[in-house]
Amino acid sequence: MRRSEIPLSVLNTMQSATVTEPEYLNSEKIEAKYGNYHIDVIASHGRTRQSALSSESDGTRVCRTFALTRFSDEGGSVSSHGTIRGGASIGATLQRDGFSILKSTIHVGRITITNRQHSVVKLMHLQTPAELALHIYRLSIAKDGDVIDYATISEIHHPEYLTEEDVRSLFSIDSSESIQPPQVDELISIILDAA
After folding, report:
1. pLDDT score, position 6
2. How many Å separate Cα 110 from the centre of its chain?
3. Model confidence, pTM
4. How far is CA 163 from the centre of its chain?
5. What pLDDT sits at residue 135?
6. In whole angstroms, what is the distance from residue 121 CA to residue 117 CA?
7. Model pLDDT for residues 26-53, shown as the tens digit of each residue
8. Which of 13, 96, 117, 177 has the fewest beta carbons under 10 Å from its own?
9. Contact, 73 vs 46, CB < 8 A?
10. What is d(CA 130, CA 191) in angstroms, rounded to the nearest whole number?
């Protein structure tokens, strides 16, 4: 862990102003909206994890958020990291272990998937073409004055769960962190290839 260069009073203000999804974690929002929540780790290699955050109805799981997580080098030093790599929810696990969660949104947009055989389309039980909200953010965690850049997370949301407009209403883009269109295109390509 690195000791923050930010004075504790400023860090406390940042933490109270930069809250993970104003009222709930993503997992809690899915559970509140659909009555249940499941996480399935689809793949986990090196510093990357692909997961489907789903709800279930009549025995059918529907992916509400497909997430591609790239853990930072520092992330591996967190005591909760092994549990998270093993398939636990990132936000819920970190909060349970006493960390404050700070999201810095670097891009909100949408992607269109036209391939009916694409795994995201299948996981979400969608027709094509499918217009999906895209949210890319850096996840930092803080505890006892220490701040860790934990991961960069790219999420694709089911249109019945969150639209691009919904994501924009929940998060403002950090202009100091925002990424340029070529970087967005590259990330979208990586996300779609990974799924």
Report:
1. 44
2. 15
3. 0.84
4. 15
5. 95
6. 7
7. 899 999 999 999 999 999 988 999 999 9
8. 117
9. no
10. 15
